Amino acid sequence: MKRTFLILLIIVFVCSKISSQTVLLEKNVKDNAYSYKKGPNMQKFSHIYFGYEFFTGNPDDKGAEIIYGLSSCIKIGYRYKFKIFEFYSVGFNAGYSFKKYVIKQEADKILPNSLLHDKEKIRFNNAELELYNRFNVGKRGNIIGKYLDIGLFGNWAFAINHFTKDKVNDEENKAELAITKYHNLWYIKRFFYGVSARLGINRFAISAEYRLSDLFKKEYQFPELPRFCVGLELALYNK
Questions:
Q1: Is 80 exceeded by the pLDDT of residue 17?
Q2: Is 2.40.160 the CATH number for 2-18+46-236?
Q3: Under 8 Å between Cβ of 152 and 196
């Protein structure tokens, strides 16, 4: 987790540098070229975003049940928007996400094996890229306003681990707790993709995504984890 938070801090710093907008003369600049091209409702606009989502829906088959409410996704990144018409824009997101599936410990569990633990998780550290279409509704000034985003996303999982935690009475090692972390998991694909949507007003949005591709390689015949997640998103910018 320390490495995850360090990555988040680095991304926040880099994104803040990219999205910062410096105005040299701030007095009476309503008519200059800068004010007509930059801003939430101008032709070009960019900002940092932060999101928190929960996985929902059922796995494709039995044996891969998760604990809902604990299985979640944290997102942070840089968003760029280019307005084509007053009601229509296109853009992209580039960022980082941390996706965590907390595996429910049941007798029919088969992912990634049938062993039961006190706690068990599969965690993904991802680089994300999304291309989206934005549809605005209603009149507005230089604000984002009401909008619907529909897009396609792709993830590259650059770090994946399987984590287990158990209380033990290990006299040989004189320990009461055993924590195990497995890396370089053979059965998981590094790339996956899906569709995304956001329904928002200014800084706040309800976000959702649905994974179309499989997480697991076919030869291992694991049931797929839930594909759908939904949550909230906050746009971070000065305005």
A1: no
A2: yes
A3: yes
Residue 6, by phi and psi: left (phi above 0), alpha (psi -120 to 50) or beta? alpha
Within 10 A of 73 (CB to CB), how many other CB atoms are there? 21
Q: What is the pLDDT of residues 163-196, one digit of tens each?
A: 999 999 888 888 999 999 999 999 999 999 999 9
What does pTM read for this prediction? 0.83
Q: Is the pLDDT of residue 138 over 90?
A: no
Q: Which residue has the higher pLDDT, 27 or 121?
A: 121
Q: Which of 133, 73, 65 is nearest to 103 (CA)?
A: 65
Q: How far apart are CA 232 and CA 208, in angstroms?
A: 8
Instruction: Answer for the pair 36, 42: CB distance below 8 angstroms, yes or no.
Output: yes
Element spanning 3, H or E = helix 2-19
